[in-house]
Amino acid sequence: MEKLCVIGLGYVGLPLAVELAEKYSVIGYDIDAKRIQELQSGIDRTLEISTERLNASKLELTSKLEKVRDSNIFIITVPTPIDHEKKPDLSILLKATEDVGRVLKRGDLVIYESTVYPGCTEEDCVPVLEKVSGLKFNQDFFCGYSPERINPGDKTKTIRDIVKVTSGSTPEIANKVDALYASIVTAGTFKTSSIRIAEASKIVENTQRDINIAFVNELAMMFGEMGINTHEVLEAAGTKWNFMRVVPGLVGGQCIGVNPYYLSHKAKKHGHTPKLISVAREINDGMATHVASQVVKQMLKKGIAVKGAKVLILGVTFKPNCPDVRNSKVLDLITELKDYECEVEIYDPWITEENALMEFGLPLTTLSCVNSLVGYSAIVLAVSHHVFRQINFTGLNRSETIFYDIKNVFS
Fold first, then answer.
1. Would you say 245 and 234 are in contact if contact means Cβ atoms under 8 Å apart?
2. 70-84, 148-162, 253-267 — which one is most confidently predicted on average?
3. Catalytic sites, residue numbers
4. What is d(CA 125, CA 147) in angstroms, rounded to the nearest whole number?
5. CB 3.0 to 4.6 Å from 168: which of 160, 161, 174, 402, for a disulfide?
6. Rounded to an integer, what distance in angstroms lies between the CA atom of residue 411 and that of residue 397?
């Protein structure tokens, strides 16, 4: 009988573990003991799984490695961020791999879901598994790769509704991995011919989006100088059946804002410098600087003093209707505005006061202050949370306050 263990219970691992637990014996493992305690109490701070579903789930939870030793399929779903030099940081992934290596047995299967560059599973992770376990790859144990396709905050497209790419280290294992995911994904699976193909497919998904967003961000910069409304242009262009609909904005998160660096890193190892990918990253990473300069420019045009100006930022998560602040580019916007000596305040009902202080170094402004709309030289709507549509901006004094709507929430 198969016994599964999901390693890492964050935005990716927890929904997967809960889904698998409806059909299999599953144990969820995370080194964060506090996280395990919260989940055992029915609390998911990521808001991906409801208290009712958590409490009803047969998922076993632990922060103790010894308790997962009986598992024979290990699924690793830990984050793969970049470091301060924007290079791949595999430390969390390799630490999880070491943990699995300590409990790995003959016949076991290790499946990776973490986003990596092509070749990472077999070139970086497998040697660690072999060294720690003393076992031989594709003789004593096997590997698979099935890139995660979780969309944090999206309650309409869950694991069941998104086609799952699968792969395995041998044809037999590829079939086994594919069958496992096919048993829970109603949308179906797509079995690739190798682990490297599956790894590359995931990273291309996000890099393509990064390039497309960079294009419309550059359009926004150009049209802004021409006095043309970018969103109206995109709406008109979008009337053609094959136009790809993408909107300008800050590009953060653990996928689009990170994955292209993984692909570029691997390409450079093979002697190729990806120019288009690099330029797209440069444009998107510079978007916060552009927005800050545009806000200040508009303030100056209206004779509003910049130094000491109170600026309110609405929304600090990396995407709407979600508490995820990982790699949020709103932090860059805050930094830029502070460099202009503005006094920045933030409001986001999706995060806690603790998160606001930890991630952004600022307390959360109260809703009453936001609703009053008084005393701010500029208000920047950075994230299109649905709740912001309930704020009444009709009373805003346009001669005293700049309203900068990055996401075009208000026409």
1. yes
2. 70-84
3. 255
4. 15
5. 174
6. 17
The tokens 């263990």 sit on which residue? 5
Q: What is the pLDDT of residues 333-366, one digit of tens each?
A: 999 999 999 999 999 999 989 988 998 999 988 8
The structural domains of the chain, ordered by start, are: 3-199 (3.40.50.720), 287-411 (3.40.50.720)
DSSP readout, 23-68?
Answer: TSEEEEE-S-HHHHHHHHTT--TTSSS-HHHHHH---EEES-GGGG
Sheet harboring 378-381: ordered strands across?
343-347, 310-314, 378-381, 402-405
Tens digits of residue pLDDT in 122-151: 999 999 999 999 999 999 999 999 999 988
- Burial group, residue 46, by CB count within 10 angstroms (0-12, 13-18, 19+): middle
**Binning pLDDT at 50, 70 and 90, where does residue 95 land?**
very high
Fill in the amino acid letter for 76: I
**Joined tokens for residue 107:** 């016949």
β-partners of residue 164 are 189
Angle, in degrees to the nearest 10, between helices 259-269 and 275-285: 150
CB contact at 8 A, 105 and 72: yes
194 CB-side CA count, 13 A: 8
- If DSSP codes are grouped into helix, strand and coil, which group holds residue 379? strand
Residue type, 256: I
Using alpha carbons only, how large is the chain's radius of gyration in Å? Answer: 23
Cα–Cα distance between 124 and 141 in angstroms, integer?
Answer: 16
pLDDT at 224: 87
Specify the amino acid at residue 157: K
Q: What are phi and psi of 40, to 5 degrees?
A: -65, -25
Any idea which of 165-169, 176-180, 229-233 has the lowest mean pLDDT?
229-233
For the record, the structure tokens of 116 come out as 């990596």
> What are residue 7's DSSP bridge partners?
29, 76
Q: What is the pTM of this model?
A: 0.92
Q: Report the amino acid identity of residue 115.
A: T
- Poorest-confidence range of 101-110, 189-198, 326-335? 326-335
CA dihedral 162, 168, 254, 218 (to 10 degrees): -80
Q: Is the pLDDT of residue 371 over 90?
A: no
Exposed, middle or buried by CB within 10 Å (0-12, 13-18, 19+), for 51?
A: exposed
pLDDT score recorded for residue 222: 93
